[in-house]
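Example 3.2
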Amino acid sequence: MNDFDYLGENDVYLDCACQSLRPRPVIEALNNYYTEHNSCGERVKYKWGRITDEKVEATREKVLDFLKLKAKNYTVSFTLNTTYGINLILNQLKPEFKKVFTSEIEHNSPFLATIAFAKRLGIERVVMRRNDDGSIPIEDYDFADSVVVVNCASNFDGRKLLNINDVIKKVHKQNGIIIIDAAQAMAHSSEILHKTEADAICFSAHKLYAPSLGVIVWRNDLMNKIETGFVGGGMVDDVEKEKYYLSAENAEHRYTKFESGLQAWGEIVGLGAALDWLNKLPKSAHQDLADNARELFDFLKSSPKVHLINSEPNPTMSFYVEGVDSHLLGEALSREGIMARTGYFCVHYYLDHVCHFPPLIRFSLGYHTRKSDIEKVENALSKILK
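Structure, written as tokens:
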């Protein structure tokens, strides 16, 4: 794709699950912020500031449009990353919950955060099973007065929370709240989140072809369950000696509930450009990604030495090779110009302690991936394995 023309012919980047490459329009939008209207948003009255304000507000609207959610029900706040967003919510929830749930295939982001949350409130923490297709057997769990924090797509094999709406419905019926880790879904599987009624959706823009940034999309009524304790500039309308007045009490500035201090204005503008770019992608780009994932999946599946974790093709796939150290294999691939992650990808509990896998190799494709990249990977692996 021409928007990644800076990618060298011999460079094969297969680490989109960590951070995607940025297309030219996103890079240009970020550059334009710094060279044409570098300014603080929501604070200044001069022209550059007004331009920044307009673009930031437009990005909030674009996020909701991308997820097919309505502003009357949801608010968009910007943070550092997915981990920060999840912790920001959990650390400010009022102590009115009896249990916290997560699942076995979670990234350390929600996994560790729920451990800390359970300790802080002195409540039970439940680690749920996930079926092979990614769904949760909800009939096995009682979510009464609980907080549930789960992903809707895994970061090692891309399996999805296929019964996400049923999970949300049961959690709400039992007076609980649910936070979705959408870091791995937004770029290539956002449809699973369309019109969801989750209480919060956290994701990282840098996995969405945008600059490094975190986003919280949260139901407006979640504010009633938050006891604001992480405060600072940009969050208040007025301050007295021993008292402050939160701007979030005004519906128009509700987003400030999770936005303390100066925000990454240029990165927010870049996220808006990334969403525009994704919305304009031709069907052929989606088909090319699916075809490349299928080709690589079939190749890995065909080798008797390769133990593939995926049960079906996905832009994210992980495996290990019998008798070969994955870290050494990753270095060998690197010498061929192929960039891929090795290890447990921050899913230590499940991959190491539940499945007892050795360290893995992860290939995570994106819209920049070329057919020639897949051919290079197949040729390099074939040569190495021989």
